[in-house]
Structures are given as C-alpha cells and as structure tokens.
Design a protein that fits this description.
The protein is an alpha+beta fold. Among the domains are: 69 residues, Nuclear Transport Factor 2, Chain: A (Roll); 176 residues, Elastase, domain 1 (Roll), CATH 3.10.170.10; 80 residues; 70 residues, Immunoglobulin-like (Sandwich), CATH 2.60.40. The chain contains 13 helices and 34 strands.
Length: 690
C-alpha cells in the first residue's frame, strides 16, 4: 500500500506558475526514477512532485520536479534529474526537505490581501510600487510548516528586490529579505527603483550601429596600473582615458520612426532606477561618447551584455534566456541612486549599475558579473544557489576579460576581478588567484568565499580553453539547485562535461584541479562514449569495408589509459544491411572499478549508389541566403569543376573545388538567385545572394 500511495503522490499536479508548465518525453521516467529511489532520498509517501522546468542542452535533458503538498509548491524544495542523450538518468541533485509536514493548504487571505500586507510592512510611506507578484507556497518557518504567500516587491523608497513571506492563515509577516545580487557588498545602501515600461519592437526594426566602449577596461586596454592619468577623478575624462576606448560594431540596434535605441534581440535599455538619466535614444546609429558623458555607460553596458548573450547563443549553442521581458535582459546603466554597487533583480530579470567612485558600468567585469547572476538564475529555472552565485559571476566576468589576452600570466592584474572598478581607493576588488581552499578556507562571506570557486574554474579554463570551460560551466549550472554548495557544483560541472563527451584528459584536469581545491569529487566513473548511429553507402560490388572507429570513441577513466577494441574488427567486408558495432574499452586492472566497459552503435550499410547520387544526397550549401561567402560541402566533390549561373543563364563564376568542403567568395555578385552546377557529377543546387 505504501508503494501505491507514493506513485499516486509523485504524479500530483502543482498550482503555482502553471502558465509556465513544461513537458518532456522523460517526465514519467523521471518520476519513476524518484519513486525507485524513494528510500534512498527519504521521500515522504504523502509528498508530491510536479515537473516545473525543462532544460535541453548539449549535456542532455534536465528536469526539475517541484515538491508539493496538496498540490501547493514547497518553497525551495525540488529534485533535479538529468538524462543523457540515450534517455538514461546520469545525474541528480536535490534541495528536497523531507521534514515538511502535511498541512491544510486552503488560505484564509487572498493574493491581494497578501500584497497589501507586504506593501504596508515594507513600504509604510506608500512609495511607488514598480514590481509586485504573490504566489502561494508551503514554507518551512524554522521548525514549523506554514502556508504562506511569497510576495516579491520593488518600490521606490527601499533598496533591492524584496521577498516577503506572509502567513496565508494569520496574515502575519514571517520574514522580509532583499534577494537582489550585489557585485561587491553584502548590503546595499539606498538604491531606488522607478516604474518603467520596456519598449518591445518588431525584430525587423533592427539595424547595425557602432559605438565607443572600454574593452574590458581602460587599465587593461592600456596595460597600466591604476594611478596618474588613469584614475576616476570624479568621472572626468582625459586624453589617456579617451584613447583607451575602442570602436566596436553593434550588430543589432532598434531603429523605429527615425530613432535609434540600444535594444537588440538579447537586451534592452531601461531607465527604472534613479538617477533618471534617460534611455539615450538618438537620431544616429553611432553611439560615441567619452566617460564623463552618461551615454558612455549606456553603450558600454549594451555592448558587453549583448555580446555575451550572443556568444552564449550563437557560439556555445546554449539555451539561456530570461523568463521575463519577452526573453530580454533589461539594464539601467545609471541606477542605485548613484551608490557604489550594482545588482541583478531576479524577480524582474533586470540589472542596474551604480555610479559611486568609478562608474560600475565602465568596467566589463562588473557588467558581466551581474549578467552572470542572471545566467545562473535562467539555467536553473530560478533555483540559483547562494553558495556559488558570487563565484559564478566572478568566473563569467573573468572568462571574458582573460580571453582578450591583455595581461600576461606574470602580471598581478592577470587575476584581478573588477580591474578598473576595484583594486583602487574605491574598494579592494577580488581575484581569481585566491589561495584558500575548500572547506577550511571558507569565511562565511559569499563574496569572499566565491573566490575559491572562481579560482578553481579559471585554473581549468587555463588548461582546456575558454569555449569548452564556458559551456561546461553553463550546462553544469543547469544541474544545480538552491542548496548546491561549491563541492557539489564541481561534480555538476564535471558531469556536464562528461555528458558532452569532453576528452578524458579534460575530465581528468577538472578532477585534479577540483580535488586540489578541496572539493573531494568522486572518482571518475569508467564510461565509453561511442559514435552516433551511422548510415553509409557500399562501394563498387556492394561491399563496405568496415573502418576502425576507435578514434571516434572516448573512454573516460581515472587515468585516461583505456585501450579500445571493436567488433566486428576493422577491415571486415559488409554487405548492405543493419549491423551492431560493439566497442570495448579495457582499463588496466585495479585502476577503475570496472575493468571493461562495452557500448554499441548501429551501422546501416546502404546499397551502392552512382557518383551522381552520392554527391546529390550529401551536398550542402550554407549559409543560404548568404551575403559574402558560401560553403559547399559534400562527399566526392573534391577536384570537381563548379560553375555558378544567374537567372539569365549567364555563367558568373567558375572554380575547381579543392576538397570536400570549400568556401566560395560571392560578395562580388549582385543580389538574386543563382544556380551552382557541378560539372563532373551533373548536380545542380540553388542559393540566394542577399
């Protein structure tokens, strides 16, 4: 009977945020997994779970199951289940609280009552409310389980992003807390939010533009230390600071009704905090300012936020977007009433930057640190951990700054975090060369302790490179939860890298550095990654000679010394048909728990085709449409003669293809539709020149 009750409970449906409910083919498999592990996870048989968030990425599909009581979500309590590309559970984490009691979940007060009570408690002067929402939760208040409304408020006369819990039975205010993320102070002094209405315009309004920015900051650009002409000096500019600017392309800016605005497919400017300096729209697409002009911080923030999100989407291929604002990050380059701090507001997916001492939005490290808090929030579906958040932000900022190669590893500033905003008379900044290790080096300060995590990540970055580390970092975040500590985050990042089939040497590098940091990650599980299922074509005589696929396999073991063999063996002649190829990895005895690991993939051998058919079936032209260059890729096209014809049948270009993948310059062609003809195989394909 207990098992039956648990299964029924596991599939119960929650009541909060149902408008954002997501689905997955693995939803039932995840629930069944939790049911099978109920004893190990100490799951209370009366507790329910509802799928609330799905992340699909290169590291597999990650499902988040919200813990519920009588269909009401339990605040901060969930299970994370990660599936491989073969739909097998390979990783889990959780913030599940089994001690939550079964309570009556019928509220006495309604949502509007809760909003009014929270506003009166936070905002007795009744200043303007700029953001508010209230959701019903089961909440653990010390040792008591209570029914509450979680109210999020942003008001004009109080700092930050306020989280207020109101007892849904008694109307009592249980707690009031600022949950905004600040880049270098535990508490902010006096920021001030003002209501705004972001302008969302059609994508067709986007054009390109340019601007002058600091990349990443004037000290790094000029390769000098803070001092002399390179000081804040009350935001004054000079010839040296002007020369430290660089001109950059802004790939997308909004152009509507003759007005250019700092808005793209990824981010949009807002003026939602004091001082109210405007949104810097103008009649030209050239946004050139010096640092003593307020427009400089606007274009500097826009450039770095847009570039970072564009890199995540277009280069790394990671799905990471805000839940609010139509998927855009809203930023205010002049906020917090001019305080020397900056913050990310998770309730509204907004970022604001202060102006005390060096303006925060003049330093890419500050901009990207605050964006890093957003990335953490979006990759976890709103379940970012406070134990790793500051280190995550520091890593994301340093990852970009170091990629510019402005400092040598022997330079102290090579490791500086906030090189321009900090490490000066304003404040001390931070470093990614922090000597303390985990857990003995923790001092119970999230900003200071975050340096341990960021330092470990940057040490791995220096070995395996930026793109691989950034992708493992982001996909690893998707496996974490609100209670994840640094040691658990290390396991999550490594697991993401394993899921993405990183070379064994990279996994070992992560393991060694994480262990040297004190995270004591578990030994590497011996796994063998094999190629995806393949379809090939038999050669003349309808025979396909089996190649050696060992080089396409990846055996991940503790010492990266496994030997890979194949069955059927390389050189075997195969007739058309479907075959199972078995790859076997042997690890030296005693070094791994399992000395032998097998894995398989399917090989489909198709009957022999003529050359024309092979070329036609494999030929790819991209991008299409194209502006300046196309790539022609296919099987057996090397040494073929290629001709391009316009719609009038006139030959406009001819060339001999040198390999099976060729780049062809087409910038000299007029806009229109063209036909590519491969002379040897008599194959044609069309493309559009824009």
């Amino acid at each position: 009977m207990k098992k039956t009750l648990l299964i029924l409970s596991l599939v119960c449906f929650g009541v909060v945020n149902t408008s954002n409910a997501q689905s997955s083919k693995n939803e039932k498999a995840g629930l069944n997994y939790l049911q099978s592990k109920s004893k190990e996870f100490n799951i209370n048989k009366d507790h329910g779970f509802k799928l609330r968030h799905v992340h699909n990425g290169a590291a597999g599909e990650t499902l988040r199951y919200q813990h519920t009581i009588n269909n009401v979500p339990v605040f901060g309590s969930e299970f994370v289940v990660n599936f491989s590309d073969k739909n097998e559970v390979v990783y889990t984490s959780n913030s599940y609280d089994s001690s939550v009691s079964m309570i009556d979940t019928n509220p006495v007060i309604n949502r509007d009552n809760a909003l009014s009570i929270a506003n009166n408690a936070l905002n007795p002067s009744n200043s303007e409310i700029t953001f508010q929402e209230a959701n019903l939760y089961v909440y653990k208040d010390k040792d008591q389980t209570v029914l509450t409304y979680r109210v999020s408020l942003q008001v004009t006369d109080k700092p930050g992003d306020w989280e207020i819990f109101v007892n849904a039975k008694t109307s009592a205010v249980i707690s009031i807390k600022d949950v905004a993320f600040y880049h270098h102070k535990e508490k902010n002094s006096e920021p001030n939010s003002v209501n705004h209405a972001p302008m969302f315009k059609a994508p067709l309004a986007y054009v390109s533009g340019s601007g002058m920015v600091f990349n990443a900051d004037p000290l790094s650009q000029a390769h000098v230390a803070y001092g002399g002409n390179y000081v804040d000096n009350n935001d004054a500019t000079n010839a040296q600071l002007d020369a430290a600017r660089v001109s950059v392309v802004l790939p997308e800016i909004d152009f509507t009704a003759g007005v250019y605005r700092l808005k793209s497919s990824y981010t949009d400017i807002g003026d939602f905090e004091r001082p109210r300096n405007g949104e810097f729209t103008q009649a030209t697409n050239v946004f050139n300012f010096n640092r003593e002009q307020d427009g400089f911080e606007a274009v500097n923030t826009f450039y770095h936020v847009d570039k970072s999100l564009r890199y995540i989407d277009q280069v790394l291929g990671v799905n990471c977007v805000p839940q609010q604002n139509g998927g855009l990050v809203i930023f205010d380059p002049h906020g917090l009433r001019g305080d020397d701090n900056s913050h990310f507001l998770p309730a509204s997916d907004e970022i604001a930057f202060g102006e005390g001492c060096v303006d925060d939005a003049e330093d890419a490290d500050v901009i990207l640190h605050e964006l890093g808090h957003g990335l953490d929030d979006w990759m976890t579906g709103g379940s970012a951990s406070n134990y790793t958040g500051e280190g995550n932000g520091d890593y994301w900022a340093q990852s970009y700054s170091r990629s510019l190669n402005q400092w040598l590893p022997t330079d102290p500033a090579y490791h500086y975090q906030f090189s321009w905003d900090g490490h000066n008379e304003c404040w001390g900044g931070r470093t990614t060369n922090y000597a303390a290790t985990y857990p003995g080096g923790l001092v119970n300060s999230i900003h200071t302790d975050g340096q341990i995590w960021a330092t470990a990540l940057m040490k791995i970055y220096d070995v395996i490179g930026r793109a691989k580390m950034d992708k493992a970092f982001l996909e690893g975040l998707a496996l974490t939860n609100t209670s994840t500590n640094q040691a658990q985050a290390a396991v999550a990042v490594r697991q993401a890298a394993i899921n993405m089939n990183y070379p064994c040497a990279d996994i070992k590098t992560m393991t060694d550095i994480f262990n040297a940091t004190g995270y004591a990650v578990p030994a590497i599980a011996f796994v063998l990654k094999v190629p995806a299922n393949k379809t090939v074509t038999a050669g003349v005589g309808n025979v396909y000679v089996l190649p050696n696929y060992s080089s396409e396999c990846n055996a991940i073991s503790s010492n990266c010394d496994a030997v890979i063999t194949q069955s059927p063996i390389p050189g075997t002649s195969l007739a058309p048909g479907v075959y199972t190829i078995t790859m076997t990895a042997n690890s030296p005895t005693g070094r791994d728990t399992n000395a032998i690991v097998n894995n398989t993939f399917t090989l489909t051998v198709q009957p022999f085709l003529g050359v024309d058919e092979v070329v036609k079936n494999s030929l790819k032209i991209y991008p299409n449409p194209a502006v300046s260059e196309i790539t022609i890729k296919g099987d057996d096209i090397a040494n073929q003669k290629m001709e391009i014809y316009n719609l009038l049948g006139q030959k406009v270009l001819e060339q001999t293809l040198m390999s099976n993948e060729n780049k062809i310059a087409i910038s000299q062609l007029s806009k229109g539709v063209y036909t590519i003809k491969l002379i040897n195989s008599n194959v044609t394909v069309k493309f559009v020149k824009n």
